[in-house]
Amino acid sequence: MVTLNRIYTRTGDAGTTRLASGAQVSKSDLRVEAYGAVDETNACVGLARVHLGADPELDAMLGRIQNELFDLGADLATPAKPDEAEGAKLRILDSQVARLETELDSLNDRLPALQSFILPGGTAAAAALHLARTVSRRAEREAVRLAESGEPVSGPAMRYLNRLSDFLFVAARWANDGGKAEVFWKSGATR
């Protein structure tokens, strides 16, 4: 359980923050950018949930994802150490990636096959899920950039981010009345 007695601390007024490890870094640090984009994704998922209406199945999936996004943020905010004991820190697990894949497949199997690219839109929930999808793709790019810089990023965290955007795409299709309210791209239609 996390207890927050004060919301502001003034410690970041000079443009720095502390990672979960206690290390002080710039607020523009690649690691901060990565977990910040995960936080933005979580906010977008929350917005989508407000618009879901009576879809308890998808809402439950998105509720689990929101909790896992906090786990993912903690994972990214805590650089792994080579001698770190398994389970010593909160990390995304392969079982969370597998559950995401199972739920993605469950929704996708009940949707019509795609015949064209989809424009982000349709219902309010679908539009918000498309926004969440694009922000999660940015979070993935930030995590890749972090890993490419030589910083440790766990394999399950990378896989989770990659699968998450796929899930959110399928969830947006699902939120568009099972694909019936989708808006399709019409190639060259405005020439």
Question: Can you describe this structure?
Answer:
The chain is mainly alpha-helical and 191 residues long. The protein has a single domain (25-79, 89-181), classed as Hypothetical Protein Ta1238, Chain: A, CATH 1.20.1200.10. It has five helices and four strands; from the N terminus they run ββαααβααβ. The protein has a two-stranded antiparallel sheet. α2 (56-77) packs antiparallel against α5 and α4 runs antiparallel to α5. The radius of gyration is 18 Å and the shape is elongated. The model has no long low-confidence stretch (mean pLDDT 88).
Summarize it.
This protein is mainly α. The protein has five helices and four strands. The strands form two sheets. The chain has a two-stranded antiparallel ribbon with strand order 1-2. A two-stranded antiparallel ribbon has the order 3-4.
Primary descriptors:
two-stranded antiparallel ribbon; 191 residues; 5% strand; Hypothetical Protein Ta1238, Chain: A
